[in-house]
Design brief:
The protein has 2 helices and 20 strands. The chain has 200 residues and is of the alpha/beta class. The strands form 3 sheets. Strands 1, 2, 4, 6, 8, 9, 11, 14 and 17 form a 9-stranded parallel sheet that branches. An 8-stranded mixed sheet has the order 3-5-7-10-13-16-19-20. The chain has a 3-stranded parallel sheet with strand order 12-15-18, with no helix packed on it.
Length: 200
């Protein structure tokens, strides 16, 4: 049973190809497009305004997406919201990476294909141009995102766009094993850190 809630007559809309983890909460005026992944502990609260997640967006574990009353926000196609990030009343551009534990405040506009570093704090009404690499508290643009960096980001997001299908097909509640089986398979390494990717 998913934690998906009607609020004041607004029922969330979730495309059937997307996956909302049963421990994520989606409330009210929320529209989730195709092949989106919403991780456990995420809260997407459309109680005071509309939240649109376009196709291929992922909102990972323990993220919060919310806003002040009367605002509406969009996370554009292939936006990638890392673990623990907070998006409060901000619009996130196409193919953006928001790093882990980042906070992006009200009326901020994050340009397409930007990368926001982990633990950055983006102040209210900040406008980030397309293809910007942003770090710090307060967040500052330090350089342009290279073709190699955006290729790395895009590949990582594609893993999350495959994850909803994998979850629909294989994720189910079970009783834990009490010991490690002798034939337990090893998981393959199929994605590098940015540093490793750039070093190739």
């Amino acid at each position: 049973m998913n934690m998906i809630y009607e609020f004041k007559g607004y029922i969330p809309v979730v495309h059937e190809s997307s996956f909302v983890h049963p421990l994520a909460a989606v409330t009210g005026n929320v529209i989730i497009g195709k092949n989106c992944y919403i991780g456990p502990g995420a809260a997407i609260r459309g109680d005071w305004g509309e939240i649109i997640l376009e196709d291929g967006v992922n909102v990972q574990e323990n993220c919060t997406v919310h806003m002040f009353p009367g605002k509406s926000i969009v996370l554009k196609e292939s936006a990638h919201i890392g673990h623990g990030a907070i998006i409060h009343g901000a619009n996130i551009g196409r193919n953006v990476l928001v790093g882990m534990n980042t906070v992006i405040m009200d009326d901020a506009e994050i340009g397409d294909e930007s990368i926001i570093g982990a633990m950055a704090f983006v102040k209210a009404k900040t406008v980030i141009p397309n293809r910007s690499l942003v770090v710090g508290n307060p967040a500052k643009v330090i350089k342009q995102v290279s073709d190699e960096m955006i290729a790395w980001k895009t590949k990582g997001t594609q893993l999350y766009q495959q994850l909803p299908k994998d979850c629909h097909e294989t994720l189910h509640e079970v009783e834990p094993l009490r010991e490690v089986p002798k034939n337990r398979p090893t998981q393959e390494a199929f994605y590098d850190t940015l540093r490793d990717f750039m070093g190739k």
